[in-house]
Design brief:
Blueprint (H helix, E strand, L loop, with lengths): L2 H26 L4 H15 L19 H13 L9 H11 L4 H13 L3 E2 L8 H15 L19 H12 L20 H5 L3 H11 L8 E2 L2
Parallel strand pairs: 1-2
The structure holds heme C (HEC) (2 copies).
One heme C (HEC) binds next to α2, α3, α4 and α5.
């Protein structure tokens, strides 16, 4: 084989290998963190640059949430499983934001960016009886994990680094059927008005107590913030 032909064959093989590698990366969907950071500029306006949340905007801490949960929620907002109920003022603020994410790749990229932000410890804003809450939490731990670290297989998210006011808000919305009751939402049902959660947390006081306990579970290595 002439040298030139050999070289051409080698280059052709190299190009084929490289494009094969590129396709493999695209198929695995390795997220583009740079694009994620760019997309996060909008999110930061309500959730904060560090993702620690802002009560003024009803926007919770999202830093370090598991990627599967962030992606699931962004898709729920986007499709209207979450944030469409007329009494869900906070959800209705978030839903249009999710719609700015045009492609699945954008969702994956911004999700990866949110998930890699260091978790934060939101300031305590509510009072409750953490001891009473600990007993109530036994049920929750079956799905959310003993330290509220979340259990992906149950689709039950981490709760330990969420804001106390946001936890109370979500539990109340689930109990009242404002979140998680749309047809086609198999996971919301697990927290619905007739779920064991709702039966366990009958009173507003029991909601505050379990939340007072959950916020004690944030790992001390996480960054204290505001
Ligand atoms: C206009 C303010 C605003 C902007 C901008 C915004 N959000 Fe939100 N976000 C909210 C509010 C309010 C909630 C709480 C909704 C609720 O209570 O159900 C929320 C909830 C969420 C949740 C659910 C958290 C959980 O624990 O379930 C995620 C995830 C989220 N936002 C991600 C994002 C991302 C990613 C962006 C940028 C693309 C973004 N948000 C932009 C206001 C905003
Ligand atoms: C049978 C399993 C199960 C049990 C028991 C359970 N949960 Fe959940 N929980 C879930 C699932 C699944 C979701 C996600 C629902 C969705 O995204 O629509 C969830 C969501 C939540 C959320 C919303 C988190 C966020 O970031 O918005 C809170 C708060 C919560 N659970 C608290 C509790 C508490 C407190 C208890 C106990 C009193 C409890 N859960 C018991 C499965 C469970």
């Amino acid at each position: 084989m002439a040298l030139r032909t050999k070289l051409a064959a080698f280059l052709a093989a190299l190009v084929a290998n490289l494009s094969f590698a590129a396709i493999a990366v695209a198929e695995q969907g390795v997220p583009d963190l740079e694009n994620g950071a760019e997309l996060f500029q909008l999110c930061a306006q309500c959730h904060g640059e560090d993702g620690s949340g802002n009560k003024l905007f009803l926007a919770p801490a999202i830093a370090g949430l598991d990627d599967w949960y962030v992606e699931m929620q962004l898709n729920e907002f986007r499709t209207g499983l979450r944030g469409l109920h007329f009494d869900d003022i906070a959800g209705m603020r978030m839903r249009p934001m999710s719609i700015t994410l045009r492609t699945d790749a954008d969702i994956k990229d911004v999700t990866a960016y949110v998930a890699q932000l260091p978790k934060t410890i939101p300031a305590k804003t509510l009072d409750g009886n953490a001891d009473a809450g600990k007993a109530l939490y036994t049920l929750c731990g079956a799905c959310h994990g003993p330290t509220a670290q979340g259990i992906a297989a149950m689709k039950a998210p981490a709760l330990s680094n969420l804001n106390d006011w946001y936890l109370v808000e979500q539990l109340t919305k689930f109990k009242m059927g404002i979140r998680g009751t749309r047809p086609g939402d198999p996971y919301g049902v697990l927290m619905g008005p007739s779920s064991p959660m709702a039966v366990t947390l009958k009173t507003d006081q029991s909601v505050r107590d379990v939340v007072a306990y959950i916020v004690t579970l944030a790992p001390s290595s996480d960054q204290p913030t505001n």
